[in-house]
Design brief:
By secondary structure, this protein is of the alpha+beta class. It is about 30% helix and about 25% strand.
Length: about 1200
C-alpha cells in the first residue's frame, strides 16, 4: 500500500503550462469514506429538492455569490480538487489464512472448505455493501466508480476467484466495463504500467462526465438567453455599496460560458474552450461598459476584474498552445488598453498606484506564462525583418489596383516592437517599470493631504515592499535577457537592466550592492562611449560613495565626472573636489591615487602632431603637443602641479611644472630643448620646463620641440599624465596622447604663428607618429646583353652592380622568370650554377666596398616557341652595421625600417626568335613486294619487317637560317629513334661527307636533306588512320656570329622527323614496265591487282584496249577474269611486248573492273537484258607513284578511276 501511495503521488501534478493532450489524470489520494460537497442545501428526500439550487449559485441566499455574483474561485477548486470525474476505490479482498496439511496424502477437509467458503461469502457480502454505498454517492453526481481489489499472488491461482468477483460486481451494482480490477503485489515499474492502463481505461468515462456537465450548463444558458436584457435604472446607492438586484442575463451568460470553457478544457478540447472563453470575455466587457451593471469599487466589480484577468490569461495561453504568437500578444495588449480606458472612467487612471499595480500584474502574469512555456516546447519568433533584396521595393501599403499587400510584404517595411512577442525577460522588465511607477504614485499620494491618503487600498498598499518586488522582477528580467540576448546586441539592454537594479539598491539603502553593480556597468559604458548613460549613473554612484563614506572613491568619481561635464553647475564639481581634498587625507599619506581616464572622457583635450611622417637616421623631427581646456567644463581651480609626457621609445620624459606667474593668453607657447636618446637604460634625465597650468575654457598650452634619432624605428607619445596636488593628496590622471571630448572635433593643426595666432591644417592620417628609416643605399645596376635571343641558345645577361654609397653593402639578387604568354614555350634560367624555370633566390654578390663593382652572368635558355621573355630582378642590399631599433616591441609601421635594408626592382623584356626555319614535305610510295604468305613462318622472327602495307615515306627537310645575323653551323646529324612501325632506310646526311653542311650561314641561306623511311603498320592501324611518330630527329650544332672571327657559346637545335600517316588503299592495280626497250626485243609488262579492303573480296576482270596496240606486238591475255581476290591478297598478270616503233611509245591501255560493286540489271524497251559494268579500278604506274597524306579516299577513287582508268598514259622509250 505504501508503494502504491508513492506511485500515485509521483503522477501528473497540476501545471500552468500543459499543451500536451494525453490520457492522464490529476490523481489525489483521499480517504475511502470521503464526502463530496452537497449538490443542494436540502436533502434529496425534501419536497423542495427539485427547486433548490447549488450552494454556490447566486440564487441561493446563503451563497457567497448571492444575489448578483458571477462565479467564485471555490467553484474551480470544487471541480479540480473536491469532486472527481472518476472515483477509484482501493479495497482489500478477504483471504482465509492458508493452513498447511499435515501430510500431502491426507484428503481435503470438507468441513474446513465449507467453513472457508462461508467466511469468504460473508466478507464478500460486506465488501459489496460498502461498494454499493459508495456507488450510490457517485451515481448521484454521475461519477464513474471503479474498484481495485488488492490481493496476494496466491489467490490469483484460486479457481473460486472468478466466481467471487462476479458475485461482488452483481451485489454492488458495478458496471460491466472498466469497473473492477484486481491488483497483486508487483514491482514499481509494473505498478506504473498498471496505473497507465487504468487511466487509459477510464479516460472515456471522464470525458463523458464533463460532456454531460457541459450539456447541462448549455441548457441553462439557452434558457437564460431567451430572456431579453432590458435596462431598468437602479435606485441610487452610495459608492462602494453593493446592490441587492439579482444577477442580470449578461451575468448568467458569463457564468455559463465560463463553466462550459472549463469543462471543455478538462476534456482536452482546447479550441472549444477558447471559443467559450472568448464569448465570456466579450460579454464581460459589455458588463464593464455600464456602471449600472457593475458599479465601480464594489465587491462584485472586484470579483469581475479578477475573472476578466483570468479569462484573458486563458485565452492568451490557448493562443500560445497553437503557436499563434501575434494573436496572443494582441489579446494581451487589447485587454490592457480596454481596462486602462475603463480605469480612467472609474477614477483610477495613470495618476493612481492601483492602476500601475494592475498593469504590472498583467505583465508579470504574461512573463510567468511565457517562462513556463519556454521550459517546454514554446519557441519565440526571431522578428527578423525580411530582406529588401528578396522582392520588389515597396513604397506604399497597397499593391496594384489598390489591393492590400500581404503580411510578409508589410513586414518588410518594418515591425512595431509592441506587436512582436518577445521573450519573458521583456515582460518582467515591463512589470518592474510599472511597479516603479506604482511606488512613485504611492509615495506621491502619501505626501498629499490626509483625505487622499485614506483612499481605498492605501492601507494595504502601505504593507507592500515595493523595492523588494522591483528587485525580484529586475533580477528575473536580467537573467532572462542574458539567456536570450544575441551577440549583435552585446547585452546593452542587459546592462541597462543591471543599472536599474543598482538604482533600486540605492533606493533601498543597500549602497554597497549598488556600487558593485555600478562598477561592472561603467566598464562597458566607458569602453563603448555611452556617455549619455554614464552621466546619470555617476550621479547616483557619487551619492552612494558619499553615503558609504569612501573618500577615495568619491575623489575618483569627482575627477571622472569633471571630464564628462554636463552634470549640474560646471563649477560645482571642482568645488566639491577641492573641498574634499582640503578637508580629508588619503588612507596612506604617501600613496598616489591613480585615476585612469584612458577609456573615459579626458579632463584636457590633447593632440600630438609631428611635422613629417618620416625622417632619416641622424635627422631631427619637429613636434607639437597641444593641451586644450574643454569649453563645457570648468577646470580653472584644479590644483594641477605637473604634466608628464612620456614617449614610446627610450627617451627621457618631459615634465611641465606649474609656475605661479599668471598668464591671460589664450594660446601659451612652451619651447622645449632638443630631446636626445638616452645614453643607456637607467640613466634617463628628465626634461623639465615651467608653464602656467591653469586653464579657462578653450585655453591652449602648446609644447614645441625637436627630437633627434640615432637608430631606425617608430616614435610616438605613449601617455600624458596630469598630476594634481592638494595638501597630502597626490592624484595622477593618465590621458591618451590624442584624446578629445565627445562634443569636440579636434582636427590636427600645426601652430605656425603666435602673433597673430595662426594654424596650418595637417591632412595626413598618421600625424601622431613619426617613422625613422635608414638612408637609402646608393647602388647603380646595369644589364648588358644582345638585342635578340635565339631559341636553344644560352643567352648571357651580364649584371653589374656598383656601390656608390659610403658604406659597405651586402648584396643579394633574386631572379624571377615570368611565365611566357606564348603556347608551347619552354624556358629556364641558370644563375651562379642554380637552374630554375621560375625563381632563383638569394644569389650572393658578397660585400661590395664603396666605389667597387660586382659582375655576374645570368643565362637564359629558351626553346619551343619564339616570343618575349620577361625577367624580374630584385637587388637587395643591407649595410654591414648591426644597428637595431630602439623599439622593444614589434611595430607594423616600422617592421621594414628597423633594419638597414634596401631593395631595387628591375624588369627585363627579352625578345626571342628562332635560329632556323624548318620546312618538311612527305611523299608516300606503295610497296612492290607481295605480303607474306599465310604459312610463312618468317613473320614470327624478331628481325622480320613487313612494309607491304605501309610502303615507304620520302621526307624532304629544308632548313633556312632565320637569324638576323650569321650563324656558324658545326654539324648536322640525324639521330635514329627506335620505333615499332617505322625505321630510317637511308638519308643524304648520313651518306654525305662530314663537313658538307658546316660553315657560316647568313640570313636566308638554306640546306636540305632527303630521308627514306620504311613503314610497317598493321592493316587496322592504317584503316583507323593512326599516326606513326617520326623515327628520328635532326641535331644542328651551331654558334652565334658575334663579330668576324668571334662566336658565341655552342648551341644545339633539335627538330624531329614529321609524324607519318600512310594513305589508305582499297582495290588498286599497279603497272610495272621498263623505262627503255630495244626495237623488236621482247620486254615484260606486269600488272598487280591488290585488294586492301579489310572485309570485302574482289571479282576483277582485266582487258587490253584494241586501239592502243599499234606500237607493240602483245603476247598475253587480251580479256579475262582474274581469280577471286580475298582481302589482303593480290593477283599478277604478265604480258610480253615487242616494240615495232622507235621513240617514246605508249604502252597498251589496260582496263580493270571490280564487279562486286555492279548495279542490278535493268530492262530495255525490247525486254532484253544487258550486262552492266562494275567499278573501274585505277591503274597506277609504279614509276610515278607519289602520294600525299591520305589522298586515296573512296570518293577520289571513283572520280579518278572513271577519268583515267581506261586510258593509260605510261610510255616506254624504244631505242633502235
Amino acid at each position: 500500500m505504501s508503494r502504491l501511495r508513492q506511485v500515485l503521488q509521483t503522477q501528473l501534478k497540476p501545471s500552468i503550462w500543459a499543451p500536451e493532450r494525453t490520457k492522464t489524470f490529476q490523481m489525489i489520494p483521499v480517504d475511502r469514506n470521503v464526502r463530496f460537497p452537497p449538490l443542494k442545501l436540502v436533502p434529496s428526500e425534501d419536497p423542495s429538492y427539485a427547486t433548490a439550487h447549488s450552494p454556490l449559485s447566486p440564487l441561493t441566499p446563503s451563497s457567497p455569490l448571492s444575489p448578483d455574483g458571477l462565479i467564485a474561485p471555490i467553484w474551480i477548486r470544487k471541480h479540480t480538487s473536491l469532486v472527481p470525474s472518476v472515483f477509484v476505490l482501493f479495497l482489500r479482498l478477504f483471504e482465509v489464512p492458508y493452513t498447511t496439511p499435515r501430510s500431502p496424502l491426507d484428503p481435503p477437509d470438507a468441513e474446513h472448505e465449507r467453513e472457508r467458503a462461508e467466511e469468504e461469502r460473508r466478507k464478500d457480502t460486506d465488501l459489496s455493501s460498502e461498494i454499493a454505498h459508495r456507488k450510490k454517492t457517485t451515481n448521484e453526481r454521475g461519477i464513474k466508480l471503479t474498484v481495485v481489489l488488492m490481493a496476494s499472488r496466491r489467490i490469483l491461482d484460486d479457481p473460486s476467484l472468478d466466481g467471487r468477483l462476479t458475485y461482488i460486481r452483481k451485489q454492488s451494482g458495478l458496471d460491466s466495463r472498466a469497473a473492477l480490477f484486481v491488483l497483486s503485489p508487483v514491482s514499481s515499474a509494473e505498478l506504473h504500467d498498471f496505473l497507465h492502463s487504468l487511466q487509459d481505461a477510464l479516460y472515456e468515462s471522464a470525458v463523458e462526465y464533463y460532456t454531460s456537465h457541459s450539456k447541462r450548463v448549455r441548457r441553462k444558458r439557452n434558457r437564460h438567453s431567451q430572456a431579453v436584457s432590458s435596462y431598468n435604472p437602479a435606485p441610487l446607492v452610495p459608492v462602494g455599496v453593493a446592490s441587492t438586484r439579482p444577477l442580470r442575463p449578461e451575468g448568467w451568460t458569463v457564468r455559463y460560458e465560463y463553466k462550459m470553457a472549463c469543462f471543455a478544457e478538462f476534456r482536452g478540447e482546447d479550441e472549444v474552450a477558447l471559443k467559450h472563453y472568448q464569448d465570456a470575455y466579450t460579454t464581460l466587457m459589455i458588463m464593464f461598459g455600464s456602471t449600472a451593471i457593475l458599479p465601480p469599487r464594489t465587491k462584485r466589480w472586484a470579483e469581475a476584474k479578477v475573472l476578466a484577468d483570468t479569462i484573458n490569461f486563458k485565452i492568451t495561453k490557448f493562443y500560445l498552445y497553437n503557436n499563434e504568437h501575434a494573436l496572443a500578444l494582441s489579446h494581451h495588449n487589447l485587454h490592457i488598453r480596454r481596462f486602462a480606458d475603463f480605469s480612467r472612467g472609474w477614477g483610477i487612471g495613470e495618476e493612481t498606484f492601483e492602476y500601475w499595480s494592475w498593469i504590472a500584474r498583467q505583465h508579470r502574469v504574461l512573463a510567468e506564462l511565457l517562462e513556463q512555456g519556454s521550459r517546454s516546447a514554446l519557441t519565440f519568433p526571431t522578428n527578423t525583418p525580411a530582406s529588401r533584396t528578396s522582392g520588389v521595393p515597396l513604397v506604399s501599403g497597397v499593391g496594384p489596383g489598390s489591393a492590400p499587400l500581404d503580411l510578409d510584404a508589410v513586414r518588410a517595411l518594418g515591425l512595431n516592437p509592441s506587436h512582436a512577442l518577445q521573450h519573458p525577460g521583456h515582460y518582467y522588465y515591463m512589470a518592474a517599470r510599472c511597479t516603479e511607477a506604482r511606488r512613485e504614485r504611492f509615495l506621491a499620494s502619501g505626501n498629499m493631504s490626509q483625505g487622499t491618503s485614506s483612499a481605498p487600498g492605501y492601507a494595504n498598499e502601505k504593507k507592500v515592499d515595493h523595492l523588494k518586488i522591483i528587485l525580484e522582477l529586475y533580477t528575473k528580467s536580467y537573467e532572462l535577457f542574458k539567456k536570450y540576448s544575441s551577440s549583435a546586441s552585446q547585452g546593452r539592454l542587459t546592462l541597462w537592466i543591471a543599472c536599474r537594479i543598482a538604482h533600486t539598491y540605492y533606493d533601498s539603502g543597500k549602497f554597497d550592492m549598488a556600487v558593485r553593480f555600478f562598477e561592472r556597468i561603467a566598464k562597458t559604458y566607458r569602453r563603448e562611449k555611452w556617455n549619455t548613460m554614464l552621466r546619470p549613473l555617476f550621479s547616483t554612484w557619487y551619492a552612494c560613495a558619499q553615503k558609504l563614506g569612501d573618500v577615495e572613491l568619491t575623489v575618483r568619481l569627482l575627477v571622472e565626472m569633471i571630464g564628462y561635464g554636463g552634470v549640474g553647475d560646471p563649477g560645482t564639481l571642482q568645488g566639491d573636489l577641492l573641498a574634499i581634498l582640503k578637508s580629508s587625507v588619503p588612507s596612506a599619506p604617501s600613496a598616489v591615487l591613480l585615476v585612469d581616464l584612458t577609456e573615459s572622457e579626458p579632463i584636457l583635450n590633447t593632440s600630438v602632431v609631428f611635422w613629417k611622417p618620416e625622417v632619416r637616421v641622424g635627422d631631427d623631427a619637429a613636434f607639437q603637443i597641444s593641451l586644450i581646456a574643454p569649453s563645457n567644463a570648468t577646470i580653472s581651480a584644479l590644483p594641477v602641479d605637473s604634466i608628464t609626457i612620456t614617449f614610446s621609445d627610450n627617451y627621457a620624459p618631459i615634465i611641465v611644472r606649474h609656475e605661479s606667474a599668471e598668464s591671460s593668453e589664450l594660446v601659451r607657447l612652451v619651447r622645449l630643448p632638443q630631446i636626445q636618446p638616452a645614453a643607456s637604460e637607467g640613466e634617463d634625465i628628465d626634461i623639465e620646463v615651467e608653464a602656467y597650468l591653469r586653464w579657462k575654457p578653450d585655453d591652449k598650452v602648446i609644447l614645441i620641440g625637436t627630437i633627434a634619432f640615432d637608430a631606425p624605428g617608430s616614435l610616438s607619445v605613449s601617455s600624458i599624465i596630469v598630476t594634481l596636488k592638494e595638501g597630502s593628496w597626490t592624484i595622477k590622471i593618465p590621458h591618451k596622447p590624442c584624446a578629445a571630448h565627445e562634443s569636440t572635433i579636434l582636427a590636427p593643426r600645426w601652430l605656425s604663428s603666435i602673433q597673430p595666432v595662426r594654424f596650418l591644417p595637417v591632412s595626413r592620417e598618421d600625424y601622431s607618429r613619426v617613422t625613422v628609416r635608414h638612408r637609402p643605399h646608393q647602388l647603380a645596376i646595369s644589364f648588358s646583353h644582345q638585342e635578340l635571343a635565339l631559341l636553344d641558345e644560352e643567352y648571357p645577361i651580364t649584371i653589374e652592380i656598383t656601390n656608390n654609397d659610403d658604406r659597405h653593402l651586402d648584396v643579394d639578387v633574386d631572379v624571377l622568370l615570368q611565365p611566357a604568354e606564348v603556347d608551347e614555350a619552354v624556358q629556364h634560367i641558370v644563375f651562379n650554377n642554380h637552374k630554375s624555370s621560375g625563381l632563383i633566390k638569394g644569389i650572393q654578390f658578397g660585400t661590395i666596398a664603396p666605389g667597387v663593382s660586382a659582375v655576374k652572368t645570368l643565362l637564359l635558355i629558351s626553346s619551343g616557341a619564339s616570343g618575349d621573355r620577361t625577367i624580374d630582378v630584385s637587388v637587395q642590399s643591407s649595410s654591414g652595421s648591426n644597428e637595431q631599433s630602439r623599439s622593444d616591441t614589434p611595430d607594423p609601421h616600422t617592421s621594414s625600417a628597423n633594419h638597414d635594408t634596401s631593395e631595387i626592382l628591375r624588369t627585363l623584356l627579352i625578345p626571342t626568335a628562332s635560329a632556323f626555319l624548318v620546312t618538311q614535305d612527305v611523299d608516300y610510295w606503295r610497296a612492290l613486294r607481295p605480303p607474306p604468305a599465310l604459312a610463312d613462318l618468317s613473320v614470327f622472327e624478331k628481325e622480320f619487317w613487313d612494309d607491304s602495307v605501309g610502303g615507304e615515306a620520302i621526307v624532304s627537310t629544308e632548313v633556312e637560317c632565320s637569324a638576323p645575323w650569321g650563324l656558324e653551323v658545326e654539324s648536322l646529324q640525324l639521330h635514329r629513334l627506335e620505333s615499332r612501325n617505322a625505321k630510317v632506310v637511308h638519308s643524304s646526311v648520313e651518306e654525305s661527307a662530314d663537313d658538307m653542311f658546316t660553315g657560316e650561314y647568313l640570313t636566308g641561306d638554306r640546306f636540305c636533306d632527303m630521308c627514306c623511311i620504311s613503314l610497317a603498320p598493321t592493316e587496322d592501324e592504317v584503316a583507323n588512320g593512326e599516326v606513326i611518330p617520326g623515327p628520328g630527329e635532326y641535331v644542328v650544332t651551331w654558334r652565334r656570329t658575334i663579330s668576324p672571327g668571334k662566336y658565341g657559346p655552342r648551341s644545339e637545335t633539335r627538330f624531329s622527323l614529321p609524324p607519318l600517316r600512310p594513305p589508305r588503299d582499297g582495290l588498286i592495280a599497279m603497272l610495272t614496265v621498263p623505262t627503255t626497250a630495244k626495237l623488236h626485243t621482247p620486254v615484260p609488262m606486269h600488272l598487280t591487282v591488290r585488294n586492301r579492303n579489310t572485309a570485302r573480296s574482289a571479282v576483277v576482270t582485266a582487258s587490253l584496249e584494241p586501239h592502243s596496240l599499234d606500237g607493240f606486238v602483245v603476247a598475253g591475255l587480251r580479256s579475262g577474269r582474274l581469280p577471286l581476290i580475298l582481302p589482303g591478297a593480290e593477283e599478277k598478270l604478265i604480258w610480253n611486248l615487242i616494240p615495232i616503233e622507235c621513240g617514246l611509245v605508249r604502252v597498251p591501255s589496260i582496263k580493270v573492273i571490280d564487279h562486286r560493286k555492279a548495279l542490278p540489271a535493268t530492262d530495255d524497251g525490247a525486254g532484253a537484258s544487258a550486262e552492266t559494268e562494275g567499278e573501274v579500278v585505277k591503274v597506277i604506274d609504279v614509276r610515278f607513284d607519289r602520294r600525299k597524306v591520305d589522298e586515296v579516299e573512296v570518293a577520289v577513287d571513283e572520280v579518278e578511276a572513271r577519268s583515267a582508268g581506261q586510258a593509260n598514259t605510261s610510255a616506254i622509250l624504244v631505242l633502235p
